[in-house]
Amino acid sequence: xxxxxxxxxxxxxxxxxxxxxxxxxxxxxxxxxxxxxxxxxxxxxxxxxxxxxxxxxxxxxxxxxxxxxxxxxxxxxxxxxxxxxxxxxxxxxxxxxxxxxxxxxxxxxxxxxxxxxxxxxxxxxxxxxxxxxxxxxxxxxxxxxxxxxxxxxxxxxxxxxxxxxxxxxxxxxxxxxxxxxxxxxxxxxxxxxxxxxxxxxxxxxxxxxxxxxxxxxxxxxxxxxxxxxxxxxxxxxxxxxxxxxxxxxxxxxxxxxxxxxxxxxxxxxxxxxxxxxxxxxxxxxxxxxxxxxxxxxxxxxxxxxxxxxxxxxxxxxxxxxxxxxxxxxxxxxxxxxxxxxxxxxx
Length: 346
Prior knowledge:
Helices cover 37% and strands 14% of the residues. It has 13 helices and 15 strands. It has a 4-stranded mixed sheet, sandwiched between helices. Strands 4-12-13 form a 3-stranded antiparallel sheet. A hairpin with a 2-residue loop joins β12 and β13 (285-287). α1 (8-26) runs parallel beside α2 and α4 packs parallel to α12 (255-266). The longest helix is centred in the first third of the chain and has 19 residues, at 8-26.
């Protein structure tokens, strides 16, 4: 978990929810990262609620992982951030948010505290897990040779990443990276006649052929993934290319579209998994499956007593209790991005 001292209560809420729905049976270690030294009150509170080992680590200011790249003109970058604030781009005026997006996009998995580990599950403050997770996602992903897992896919805000897709498609063409069904699931084919299509490449979210990104992306505040893929040469080269373009500061490139388009570019459909059985709530948005008919095990000593929503035919959830006030986004992106994944594993 990447957090700050002032997010203590939100961090406690998230870890209590994770423990209730999953980690009380598995006792996995939890690593907390901060760009400032930890307050003892944060350490004490989170140590109390976690059932496994906890580590409280700091991202060193001289590590190169947090802050402006050495080559970047800081005054120029800060001016770009100020312009984003004036334009009303969400979080665009927050310098720390830009640092966070860059760190999460291509740095976190190289932090010394994470070096002993292959797999990670990203958890943020102020989230809730809405269903019992009675299996080990790490084990199941390893068995199925999965690399990246998500639970929710939504649309990106185009004003935060105006040039990102175009830059990635230029990289794809330069390296002659083959198009896969996973990449195609992120695309909207151009509607224009062929002679006009190249001119559409100047529009936001278009490639050199005029075809467009459908703006869907995996919501990376929940992701379970193999860090060896992120650490590998292909993804490292991909991230370094983006970093050298400066878009984490001159625009507001987020780790969600970077991870998503990176996966679409470099992974096969069968290497990605949609955890559609895991209920999850972040901010005002949730994804929450219906409970499986006859699958709630009311007498289970391991699960214990509790309350959950009614079972439904075709449900896949285990003891899910969905929020009655959160927004459930349309599943347009989730279904679109899962189509190639399901086809690949049939």
